[in-house]
Amino acid sequence: MNADYQFCPRCAAALQTESLGGYERRVCPSDGCGFIFWGNPTPVVAAVVEHEGKLLLARNVAWPAGTYALITGFLERHEIPAEAAQREVVEELNLKPLGAHFIGHYTFERMNQLIIAFHVPAEGEVTLNEELAEWKHVSFDEATYWPAATGLALRDWLQSQGYQPTELQLPFRNKR
Q1: Is residue 159, in this structure, part of any structural domain at all?
Q2: CB-based burial, 19-41: b 16+ in 10 Å, e otherwise
Q3: Which of 23, 83, 143, 149 has the most Cβ atoms closer than 10 angstroms to its Cβ?
Q4: Domain that residue 119 falls in
Q5: How does pLDDT run along the chain (176 residues), one tens digit per residue?
């Protein structure tokens, strides 16, 4: 639940927490309003970019050095997810996508996102946009995956290609 969502966007009354459908929800108590903040996840597309026979991973400018991941972006209104994944490859890397092949969908609970992942083969010379600090190629047989949403998409795609990637051990991950 989003703790920042304190007031009703319809009538400006203070929201209160109630149990609805088995979950705690923010609801408007005003008579006749009926607003409920459902907290639906935000759809995000992710691209496992294959470039020059290798994986292409990138680092966002806000991330620490050495942190690389897939190309991602928000799904825009009226966009088809496969087209959105290709759009992100063009916008962030200036590469020409050669298609988009569905891998799967994954929850990213921490950010309340639904990740819709695609394999996007691409060609051309990489030119990063302002969102990315750097990029690198990784051979398929040396790739590791991180144990969360886009990392699981990478793992699944690599396994579908006959590779057995190992899980990257993150120092901050809680073990169960």
Answers
A1: yes
A2: eeeeeebbbbeeeeeebebeeee
A3: 149
A4: 42-167
A5: 455 689 999 999 999 999 998 999 999 999 999 999 998 999 999 999 999 999 999 999 999 999 999 999 999 999 999 999 999 999 999 999 999 999 999 999 999 999 999 999 999 999 999 999 999 999 999 999 999 999 999 999 999 999 999 998 866 544 43
